[in-house]
Design goal:
It holds the Pfam family Abhydrolase_6. With 448 residues, the chain is of the alpha/beta class. It has 2 domains: 120 residues, de novo design (two linked rop proteins) (Up-down Bundle), CATH 1.20.1440; 219 residues, Alpha/Beta hydrolase fold, catalytic domain (Rossmann fold, 3-Layer(aba) Sandwich). Strands 1-2-4-3-5-6-7-8 form an 8-stranded mixed beta sheet, sandwiched between helices. Helix 2 runs antiparallel to helix 3 and helix 9 crosses helix 10. The longest helix has 20 residues. The chain binds 2-acetamido-2-deoxy-beta-D-glucopyranose (7 copies). One 2-acetamido-2-deoxy-beta-D-glucopyranose (NAG) binds next to helix 15.
Length: 448
């Protein structure tokens, strides 16, 4: 991918589309970033913040992430370069994890393997353009194997679980994390799901580690379109997310009933997963509360904001062939800004279509319009000052849900999409809301 927007052989339609649009800077620099930028490419900056944040819970070290940031300065917006830099870090860290001297205690084991797993995930992030690229699966097999070594070395080893979807043909991939060794203490429990791209393994670092310390059990899950299910079952996203969450709730209330406080069973959805959680909650009265981090109201409205504005009218005019040809040619020529290029590469793969117009068609099914008024439990909406995907949508979600919803605007340095870079503030705020809303104190103080 080229570093400069205008360096490619831009001709005809594309030239006229682009030359009027200097905003399409290849580096996508945030105009007024709340933190020191770690890259001139905003989606790299965002990924480095994700990377640094994982250090809070043993999923990264600071220096190595900043080291990749430094290397990629030579190649802003260059996805293969970024991928290679993280791949190299993943292999170096894996070699450290495999050193027999490392295995002497479980803390060494989980730090080294969780970090290895995470660096493979970071390498995967911008590597979805070519579906035949064998790294899409090989990096994932590496991250899964590494992460499993970390799971086994936790103080209470976590358990991978496959949950068959009741009336469907897919299997939900989940991980159960118990907060207590006791087999009879009923503890509050979080059910955690992501959105378009993050993996359930990321959720350990973003939410689970912080919740376990507070005495909450956790179960993370992935459904169709999400990283492991997309790969192993070859399934793209489905809008009716209750088909995924209801079987998870069934599992928790049957298999884990002896350790779950059913008055504090909470669904958390992250990013596009905010929509997914809201949708599922409308059909799942057994949930005590819902947390939507990023509160997408309408996926079509959110994803189209990532499109250069000249392209949307072509789609909306209904010339789908012209739209697909234009978008794919711009991508091929390296002329899409990195945020749009990433969204296109990853979005097509996750929705399992090669057609940009079909992608946008599909996103229209993901909206809370028809179901928001059926959400009857308390809802916490984490909104962000610098939201770039669902800007302005958090308030709409709150308005549609009504008095049960509380929207919290994270601003300043906690104001990135999903509070990336400020997971401590996010989890503090979220647990304070849970405490206030569901009462009974947090898990540990209440248990016994
Ligand atoms: C980003 O791109 C713009 C336009 O090409 C350029 O003026 C600006 O200096 C770049 N910013 C950085 C931080 O590289
Ligand atoms: C995609 O990857 C496959 C496997 O590495 C390769 O054979 C093919 O040429 C690649 N396609 C493109 C368009 O780069
Ligand atoms: C499950 O798969 C079978 C066989 O492929 C198909 O006939 C059926 O419609 C599928 N059911 C659902 C709910 O997708
Ligand atoms: C915990 O209790 C459940 C339900 O009573 C039982 O199925 C399970 O075997 C018990 N596990 C242990 C480790 O005792
Ligand atoms: C769609 O766009 C293509 C390319 O610009 C053009 O040739 C074709 O006539 C258009 N089709 C319609 C139905 O407008
Ligand atoms: C997108 O939706 C429109 C309108 O329903 C339809 O005509 C078109 O064929 C769809 N495009 C694709 C690629 O599915
Ligand atoms: C963030 O919001 C708080 C409360 O609304 C306000 O006092 C503070 O000035 C805001 N900070 C920034 C950086 O916008």
């Amino acid at each position: 991918m080229k570093a400069s927007l205008f360096s490619g052989p831009v001709v005809g339609l594309f030239a006229s589309l682009l030359l009027n649009r200097p905003v399409l800077a290849a580096n996508n620099t945030d105009p007024d970033p709340p933190t020191l930028p770690l890259s001139s490419t905003s989606n790299f900056n965002f990924n480095f913040l994700v990377g640094l944040s994982n250090a809070l819970s043993g999923g990264a070290d600071i220096g190595p992430i900043l080291g990749v940031a430094q290397k990629t300065q030579a190649a802003p917006g260059d996805f293969p370069f970024y991928t290679a830099a993280f791949h190299e870090l993943a292999l170096e860290t894996k070699a450290q994890a495999e050193d027999p001297d490392n295995a002497f205690d479980p803390i060494n084991v989980r730090d080294a393997w969780f970090s290895t797993a995470h660096y493979f995930r970071r390498a995967d992030e911008v590597n979805h353009r070519n579906w035949s690229n064998p790294q899409i699966n090989s990096f994932w097999e590496e991250q899964t194997a590494a992460f499993n070594k970390g799971l086994a070395a936790l103080p209470i080893p976590a358990q991978r679980i496959q949950i068959p979807a009741r009336e469907d043909n897919f299997t939900i991939e989940a991980i159960w994390y118990a907060a207590s060794e006791s087999n009879s203490t009923k503890l509050p429990t979080l059910i955690i799901g992501n959105g378009l791209d993050a993996a359930q393994e990321d959720s350990y670092h973003h939410f689970v580690a912080h919740a376990l310390l507070r005495g909450w059990n956790c179960i993370t899950y992935e459904g169709p379109g999400q990283p492991t299910v997309r790969r192993t079952q070859n399934l793209g996203f489905i809008p009716e997310w209750e088909r995924v969450v209801t079987p998870v709730v069934d599992y928790v209330l049957s298999e884990k009933a002896h350790v779950v406080d059913t008055d504090r069973l909470v669904l958390l959805g992250n990013s596009f997963g905010g929509y997914l959680a809201g949708r599922a909650a409308a059909f799942e009265p057994r949930l005590s509360a819902v947390i939507m981090i990023g509160g997408p109201w309408d996926a079509y409205a959110g994803f189209t904001t990532q499109l250069p504005s000249e392209l949307l009218p072509i789609y909306e005019a209904g010339n789908y062939t012209q739209f697909d040809d234009t978008v794919l040619s711009l991508r091929e020529a390296g002329e899409l800004p990195p945020d749009a290029a990433w969204g296109l590469d990853y979005g097509l793969w996750a929705m399992k279509t090669h057609s940009p117009s079909e992608f946008f068609n599909l996103t229209k099914q993901y909206r809370l319009d028809d179901v928001a008024d059926r959400i009857e439990m308390p809802v916490f909406i984490a909104d962000a000052e610098f939201e770039f995907v669902s800007k302005g949508q958090g308030q709409r979600v709150a308005d549609a849900i009504g008095p049960n919803a509380q929207r919290h605007l994270f601003n300043g340095t906690a104001g990135y999409h999903c509070q990336t870079g400020a997971y401590q503030e996010l989890t503090r705020t979220m647990h304070a809301w849970l405490h206030k809303t569901l009462g009974k104190g947090q898990g540990r103080s209440k248990s016994a």
